[in-house]
Amino acid sequence: MRNNKTPDPNVVFPVEGFDTVTYVKPTIKNPNIIVGDFTYFSDTDFESHVTHHYDFCGDKLIIGKFCQIGKGVEFIMNGANHQMNAVSTFPFYILEGWEQEAPPLSKMPIKGDTIVGNDVWIGQNVTIMPGVTIGDGTIIGANSVVAKNVDPYTIVAGNPAKPIRKRFDDELIEMMLKFKWWNKEIDEINALIPLLSDNDINRVKQVIKELL
Prior knowledge:
Number of domains: 2
Radius of gyration: 20 Å
Strand content: 15-25%
Structural class: alpha/beta
Strand order of the largest sheet: 1-3-6-9-12-14-15
Number of helices: 3
Distance between the termini: 28 Å
CATH architecture of the largest domain: 3 Solenoid
Helix content: 10-25%
Shape: globular
């Protein structure tokens, strides 16, 4: 499908006639959520799907460019964690009337930033747990719960999500991580689309080898 419009990462609704597919970046208000150009969400109000994201934790959600995020995906941040190194996990300190000081963050299981690479496809109703890193080119099956890091260009699925297989051989994965097509200019990406959508992987590998 061709049209005369130049892709614009700052429009909210990039599919004409549909108000249920949104580019995420122009909708973000929270400075601790950082999203790259052209990443889309198959729904609206992306920030409402980032839960337990409290300022006092200081954790960030960082998502790369050209990711495809399905409806119902939930990013659970570190504020959801309870103290696990005591005999009770009950958070008395947040509930009215109980005499407990809030524990310092050093006593909480804070796992750091949640990072999603570029060109990642996240199926619908996936849950991403705090502090995981998801590599470039990953595919996450619908309804999965991602609790551990995922290597680039790997397909994972399940609860907890486990590797199904690598998408390509190690040589092509290494080449794609060097090629970084998502960082190129729009005109160059447009010219690369036939290559990026070619299912003759051997031909793709040869062309990218020449381009590197």
